[in-house]
Each structure stands twice: as structure tokens, then as C-alpha cells.
Amino acid sequence: MATKIFVNLPVKDLNKSVEFFNKLGYNFNPQFSDENAKSLVITEDIIVMLLTEPFFKNFTKKEIIDAGKNTETIISLSADSRAEVDEKLNKAIAAGATTPNDPIEMEGMYGRSFDDLDGHHWEYMYMDMSAVNQ
After folding, report:
1. How many domains would you assign to the chain?
2. 95 partner at 20 to 30 Å CA-CA among 11, 86, 88, 106?
3. What residue intervals traverse the membrane (predicted)?
């Protein structure tokens, strides 16, 4: 069995977050969703659990950071082309995301980032492996 990753993110308004990620083309697994949590399916092996802030607090004794002011993680997802990176970012912006950084252009790499409605930092990266390997 392949290793799966479950990223847990606190959100202020679960319904708005679901609407946002639906606009990006993602689906949710109802089997692992309720009024406190929604299971956002990125791929079969990458699941993001969007948790209401009060529910999220059940899993940690630490304070929840304000992701609009602080960055604790960057969720980086691969894309198959530069065009897909731009398509994903355009959907995110249309859904209400903000763009905190300029596009990333490096030898064989292209990426763009956005902050979701709660300020969580996401990015899509395309890597041309033929250029990276040289």
C-alpha cells in the first residue's frame, strides 16, 4: 500500500472553504466529512482535512496560528505543465485567493503560489525533468 498523507488545516468557515476548493475543481469524500471536518481529495494518496478551528483544537495543545499573518507550512503540489500551473492559479484567484509572491522561474522549474481564504500558503510547481537533470 502506498503511503498516504493527510494534511490537517484549521479553517474559520468550513462551508466557504468547501466552496473555494470546489471552484478549484477538487472533490470531497463524504465518508470522512461532517459538520466539523471535510475531507478534501487532492489525489488518491493526498488528502487535506479541513477542520473547523474549534474541532482542530481537539488535536493540539498549541495555539492555532493566524495563517494570514504567519506561515508554518507551504503546501506544494506538482503540475504537469506551465499551463496547468497558470490554470490552477487563475481558478484560485477567481475563487478569492490572494497571490503573496511573484511566479518562481528557475532552471527547468516554474511555480506560482496563492493563499487560500484562511491564509494557508499553497503552490503549484511544474518541473521539466529534462532541464532539471542537466
Report:
1. 2
2. 106
3. none
122 close to 115: Cβ distance less than 8 angstroms: yes
118 shares a domain with 58: no
- Give tens-digit pLDDT for 98-129: 999 999 998 889 999 999 999 999 999 999 87
Residue range 52-81, pLDDT digits in tens: 999 999 999 999 999 999 998 999 999 999
d(CA 104, CA 119): 19
Higher-pLDDT residue of 97, 1: 97
- What is the residue-wise DSSP string for 91-109? HHHHTT-B--SPPEEETTE
Amino acid 107: pLDDT: 86
Q: What is the CATH number of the domain that holds 44?
A: 3.10.180.10
CA separation for the pair 112, 26 (Å, rounded): 18
Do 17 and 38 touch, CB atoms closer than 8 A? yes
Same domain, 133 and 71: yes
